[in-house]
Automatic annotation (TrEMBL):
Single annotated GO MF: GTPase activity
Subcellular location: Endoplasmic reticulum membrane
Entry's family note: Belongs to the small GTPase superfamily. Arf family.
The protein's name in its UniProt record: Signal recognition particle receptor subunit beta
InterPro entries: P-loop_NTPase (IPR027417), Small_GTPase_ARF (IPR024156), SRP_receptor_beta_su (IPR019009)
Listed Pfam families: SRPRB
Gene3D superfamilies on file: P-loop containing nucleotide triphosphate hydrolases
Membrane topology note: Single-pass membrane protein
Transmembrane segments: 51-73
GO terms for biological process, alphabetical: Golgi to plasma membrane protein transport; intracellular protein transport; protein localization to Golgi apparatus
Keywords: Endoplasmic reticulum, ER-Golgi transport, GTP-binding, Lipoprotein, Membrane, Myristate, Nucleotide-binding, Protein transport, Receptor, Transmembrane, Transmembrane helix, Transport
Length: 277
């Protein structure tokens, strides 16, 4: 074996020893950190064998995780749907039924009923608690009393008289969509265009576009929120873009209905989507 080969072997052994030394130093450093951490614990914990301590921590974590899952799945879902809109929009939607507990026999403000499409259904059917919030401007604040328990909000619009009332409709809808309770809970909102069976009724697409335009104007005029207004804590839409309902943090959809003829299929679909049987 010549001198060069011996030198290469020595270099290789030295590098190996160097790596082993670095690994040993790192291991020693970790062990020292463990000891320092362990010494900071109370004396009664220091007397517990490490394995038992680790097992206890794992059991504690799994127990907390288990209770979290149980609470998550046992959380009661709301069956309350809020029905609101301007006065005269036709919020008292009729389902053509005269059974007690249906919409037609409800108390003026709230009551529980079974969806008309499910009155003949066998098996478990979950009643819906419907709250008809007054549409008068002085009474619209009553909505705040029921929002915390709401599974959804149905905002009824008169499809016939929409144009002359579009500004007032948009302002009321804007107030609802910017309420902290609606945004934080992601409460779904259904804009229900009523009286579409009338010849002079506007389509839901026309109403949707007009509402988006009006709300876009309101965004610009309400960019500074009064400190006294505790209900409107959120802004709508994406900064720099024209407003669209798809920009809302909660789900907002537009549908049609005819309360006079009892055609409220899309309303019932919305209710059943958010109030599970």
């Amino acid at each position: 074996m010549d001198m060069n080969e011996k030198i290469e072997i020595l270099k290789s052994e030295f590098q190996k020893l160097s790596k082993d030394g670095q690994a040993w130093v790192q291991h020693l450093s970790v062990e020292m950190n463990k000891q320092e951490w362990f010494q900071k614990l109370p004396p009664f914990i220091q007397n517990i064998p490490p394995l038992q301590l680790y097992v206890a921590l794992v059991v504690l974590f799994l127990t907390m995780f288990f209770f979290f899952i149980v609470r998550l799945f046992n959380r009661k879902t709301s069956n309350t749907i809020l029905l609101t809109g301007l006065s005269g929009s036709g919020k008292t939607l009729r389902d053509g039924s005269a059974h007690q507990g249906t919409v037609t026999s409800m108390e003026p403000n709230e009551g529980s009923f079974v969806l008309h499409s499910e009155t003949t259904k066998k098996g478990k059917v979950k009643p819906v608690h419907l709250v008809d919030v007054p549409g008068h401007s002085r009474l619209q604040t009553k909505l705040d009393d029921f929002l915390p328990q709401a599974a959804g909000v149905v905002f009824v619009v008169d499809a016939v008289e929409f144009v002359p009332k579009s500004r007032a409709v948009s302002e009321y809808l804007y107030d609802i969509l910017t309420k902290a309770s609606v945004v934080k809970k992601n409460i779904p909102v259904l804009i229900l265009c009523n009286k579409v069976d009338k010849v002079t009724a506007h389509t839901k697409e026309f109403i949707r576009k007009q509402l988006e335009k009006e709300i876009d104007k309101l965004r610009a005029s309400r960019n500074v929120v009064s400190e006294a207004d505790v209900s409107n804590e959120f802004t709508l839409g994406i900064p720099g873009e024209t407003f669209a309902f798809s920009h809302c943090r909660n789900k907002v959809t537009v549908a049609e209905a005819s309360g006079g003829t009892g055609e409220i299929t899309q309303l019932e679909l919305f209710i059943r989507e958010h109030v599970k049987p």
